[in-house]
Write a structure and sequence with these properties.
This protein has 4 helices and no strands. It is mainly α and 103 residues long. Helix 2 packs antiparallel against helix 4. The chain starts with a helix and ends in a 12-residue tail after the last helix.
Length: 103
Amino acid sequence: MHAIPTILLLVEIFGMSEALEASTLVGMVTYSLYGLGYYAWIKHCQSINGWYPYPMFDLMTEAQRRMTVAGATIIAFGSFLGLRWAYRLVYGTPPPNKALHKR
């Protein structure tokens, strides 16, 4: 179920996309915001439905739920770093953006 989107994403990244130029800081902030937004969405769903979208979350404490979402966010960020590393290995490091370095 998850293999097809993953394979298509890899084909897109390595075959059709421009250079992966996002910095580590931009990636970390982006994934952190997604993680926080997803956790807020899970809590919102629970407040309306009376249960969490994942049955295991009903069995966890609040701290365990937070750690699970934080762990998933860290894994996603690690995947970003790994894909960026692989892209640079295949295509080389992209040149710096001159607009960022103007003074």
